[in-house]
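Q: Hi! First time asking for a complex rather than a single chain. Here are the components, and I think there are two in total. Is that enough to go on?
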Amino acid sequence: MPTRTILAASGLVLAAVIAGAPFVLNEGILRLATECLLLLTMAQMWNLLAGYAGLVSLGHQVFIAFGAYALFLTSGWLEVTPIWVLPVAPVVAAVVAAIIAVPLFRLREAYFSIAMWVFAEIIGAFTMKSQAVGGTSGLPLPTSKLIDFDWFEPTMFWLAGALTLGTIAALYKLMISSFGLGLMSVRDNDLAAMSVGVDVRHNRFVAFVLSAAGCGLAGALSFMGNLYIAPLAAFDVNWSVYMMFIVIIGGIGTLEGPILGVIIFFGLRELMTGPLGLSGGWYLVGLGVIAVIVMMVAPRGIWPALRDRLGIRLLDVQRTSPRPAVVLPSASQQIAG
Amino acid sequence: MAPLLRVNGLSKRFGEIVVADAVSFKLARGECLGVIGPNGAGKSSLLNLIVGLVTADGGSIMLDGAEITGLPPHRRARMGLGRAFQIPQPFPHLSVYENALVAASYGAGLHGEAASSWTMEVLQRTGLEAKADKLAGALPLIDRKRLEFAKALASKPALILLDEIAAGLTEPEVERLVAIIRTVKADHAIIWIEHIPHALRAVSDRILVLNFGRKVLEGPPADVMDSAVVREIYMGLKADGVA
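A: Yes, that's all I need. Here is the structure of the assembled complex.
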């Protein structure tokens, strides 16, 4: 299919750009780019859950923290370079999600959102009390001496780039699959979805576990880049706030929305704290104002509004109906007659 | 022939309000049961109980010999229940084709080529083929009603439940819809709630009258419509839409 070919080609071009970027960009910009990519992955994961399964989580920081702590602790126990233990992060986050889904899925709407937040706060409080994981002061990355610091920033950037491209490609594949059709039906109307045979609860569970795993991996990478983890940073509710902001202004329930949201999010931050020379507080005010305006003018986010007005389709997941390739018998008879 | 659907002593109350009071009836394949009753008589609640959106307090529902009383809605849909809602429930950001494809994939369990060709057949039969790639959220009322029927049909149901599918349509539109429903009647069982007597008469084999959640009467359309009970229940309500 031509669309798929174009997407595959764009993916390859992006991969090449990501591969080459560290040789061109300086470390500061590279670090910023890494941060953007990781937050984009997290936002995509939050969107998978909120946009496609209708579950708004205010406690997604708990999966970031679980992933990051899992990486720091496992890397310390095994005494290997943290990169090699990265796969532990999504697995731990996914297992935690699968377990807490049992009680949390009894709650709906706002109750679920708040329960997620409370759960994150409880785990955060335990972490601060527990000296085995460093308590309030946190942990340095125990195996940082094994890292080759000449290549550290480029490697982080490459990992973040690979994770982002991989996430978007995987989500795209998911959405064009029949499971994805089920997810989109639940996004649009869960009552109608269950009435035609979609197992809404199962869909929610899968989305929740995948979303947790992705955030766990992105969180592990993020704190690995800092070489240090502390509970106040890991369990910060702002993680969820940023993900939510990016998804809501960009376009909830679309794959392109979070990409646009991340560009606005970081663009605004760099503009306000850089050229405009405003303090960090003003930047948050700016974000809030934009969020309110977008919610009032385009409640489903900027991307869907742009798409409908300009007719552009980027990561098009719509299935077109199969048109009959041959002329229908009745029509040909009419022509013959 | 054993009935496809056997409802026995079905009961449900919400606090003081009784929406189903020991309702029992049977329905065979190829049969259409019309359901009438005043507003709040428990007609939509009866459908909700059958499809599993509401769980019964008592009684049983058997589909093709299997007990489905406690099953969740998606399991019942896969076992052969297709429902068209009173207020159309499309997937607004999916195309018409995708809307029906969800039902073909999940309800009927079809994949790939089989799913897409069956979906197109359903859209042809419901007159939506030309709008297959339009977004469902942008459809006018008649097409949203057709899409409700298409979604129900695409899940390859044994039993189709129609909830006021003709309500709000113009007379020619009602006739077209009735014609579509007639085409599927032979190989499906149908339960049809409607306030338009002539539409119901045209398709139903029997009519069941509900009032305060209780089955008041069941019988051939002509007998039921002319009965004293129905006249009494509908007194003052019967002025509109009577043929």
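A: The longest strand of chain B covers residues 17-27. Let me know if you'd like any chain examined more closely.
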